[in-house]
User: Fold this.
Amino acid sequence: MANPAQNPPALRTAFDGAVWFLDRARADDIHLPPQKLQRLLFIAQAAYAGRANGALLMPALFVADELGPVEPNLMRLLSEGRPDDLPSEPANRETAEFLEEIWRRFAQMSADRLNNMIVKAPAYAAALAAGRGALVAPADFAPLFAPAPAKLAEDVRVLRSQNGAAVAVRAWMPGRPKVEQDR
Assistant:
């Protein structure tokens, strides 16, 4: 059986993921501090591993730091702010939709709240106990961030709302008890 981590990542570089989140924040007129960017990237990597059977979203290694997991190359590059000429490749449609889902679920949370979600996990405590700079495996966090597969009734369809969120809908049936309609 092939190792899913040997498949090519969805993004060619971690810079592509960082630029996607930075551009998305700019589009929403939201300030995205470096620590929050690091957490969003880590959560995206973990959620992607959970959704895609351990596959990588981007070729990035996260290491333990006192504040939470960081991708050290990005941390150093972005420590002075976003460079004007940061190269990146756009994500394909499926990957962009995945990143958009991560943005919708976690962008409104503060960096502290995102940190708390991660650093309280036993896998992070074990990595930090091994020493600052120890590898943090996003796949160990996949159950925390990967959405559970939705179980839909046969007559339910998934459509998109005006803001792009997935919404389960069903035809209204007069006379059907409300409990049955909302199942």
The helical segments are 14-27, 34-51, 72-77, 93-106, 111-119, 122-129, 142-145, 178-181.
